[in-house]
Write a structure and sequence with these properties.
Largest sheet: none
Number of helices: 17
Distance between the termini: 32 Å
Structural class: mainly alpha
Number of strands: 0
Order of helices and strands: HHHHHHHHHHHHHHHHH
Strand content: under 5%
Length: 293
């Protein structure tokens, strides 16, 4: 239950930061010939103007902050999510698919219909809710969001194999991607050039990427595997940024928000340290039965 509440805080805080970027205002008011809508954006005859985008952005960011604090979460969380979908719809309407913020938006879907503010929230304090016990009522939204994230990584790797087969990591595919990215950048990307100039290192990176993506669903079966896969995906996305200048930090932070066992961290912080005699550190000497009195 604690993990689900803390995941709400993490995802909503992440979304607030992502939606506060000036990117969306830069997209607003694009000329009609550049407007290439997909999905629900076809409802608009042209790219929404700056006034509309600015208003939606302000409302969405405020709603994200309220949802993170657990204030009026039944309303603020759906409003934040709808604002994120609309703003990222602008991005997909200029001929550039939006992948960077897809994962946190999808991971938040199970939280939209779940009680997310029964603890660690302004609503819980305002309504004076009693302490909650663990229940499937609080567990399934987090588990569902974890399945969404694990599936996103798995199918990313699976698509690579379907599209290119073993050649994706056995050929010079990744090397040429890094060379091309560096050549198209204002300044050469030295790390990309260094790795691309060593075929064995580039192929090893590609193979490790596939291993992490295809193996990530193991954390659903063996939770302890998260101690490997969560840092691994964080390092993978860091490497992607350092070599290809693609920002997938939202993916890494989503994995951290959902797969780190925050409830264990919270419990450990509440539990007192135990000394060699099995007594809490700082407790007076004497048998346990005497101290308990």
């Amino acid at each position: 239950m604690v993990g689900r509440m803390l995941s709400r805080i993490g995802l909503c805080s992440l979304l607030a930061v992502r939606l506060s970027r000036p990117l969306y205002l830069q997209l607003a008011g694009q000329p009609r010939p550049l407007f290439r809508p997909i999905s629900f954006m076809r409802l608009f005859p042209s790219m929404p103007g700056p006034a509309v985008v600015r208003a939606v952005q302000a409302i969405a960011v405020v709603a994200c902050l309220l949802a993170a604090a657990g204030a009026f979460a039944r309303v603020s969380l759906p409003v934040a999510w709808l604002g994120a979908v609309f703003l990222n719809g602008l991005w997909t309407s200029v001929g550039q698919p939006m992948h960077n913020d897809t994962l946190p938006i999808l991971a938040m879907v199970p939280l939209l219909v779940a009680p997310t503010a029964d603890a660690w929230s302004v609503d819980a304090v305002r309504k004076r809710l009693p302490p909650l016990s663990n229940s499937t009522r609080y567990g399934w939204p987090l588990r569902t969001a974890m399945i969404v994230v694990a599936g996103a990584y798995f199918f990313s790797g699976f698509n690579k194999l379907v599209s290119s087969g073993p050649a994706w990591f056995l050929s010079g595919n990744l090397r040429w991607i890094m060379y091309a990215t560096s050549d198209s950048s204002p300044r050469p990307i030295r790390l990309a050039i260094l790795l691309a100039s060593h075929p064995i290192a580039a192929n090893a990176m590609a193979a490790l990427t596939l291993l992490v993506e295809l193996g990530f669903p193991l954390v659903l079966w063996k939770p302890k595997a998260a101690w490997f896969f969560v840092p691994a995906v964080a390092m993978m996305h860091l490497g992607i940024w350092l070599t290809l200048r693609l920002d997938y930090s939202a993916w890494a932070l989503t994995a951290l928000a959902l797969f780190v066992p925050w409830e264990l961290v919270a419990v450990r912080k509440r539990e007192p340290a135990i000394n060699a005699r099995g007594a809490p550190v700082g407790s007076p000497p004497g048998p346990a039965w005497f101290r308990s009195r």
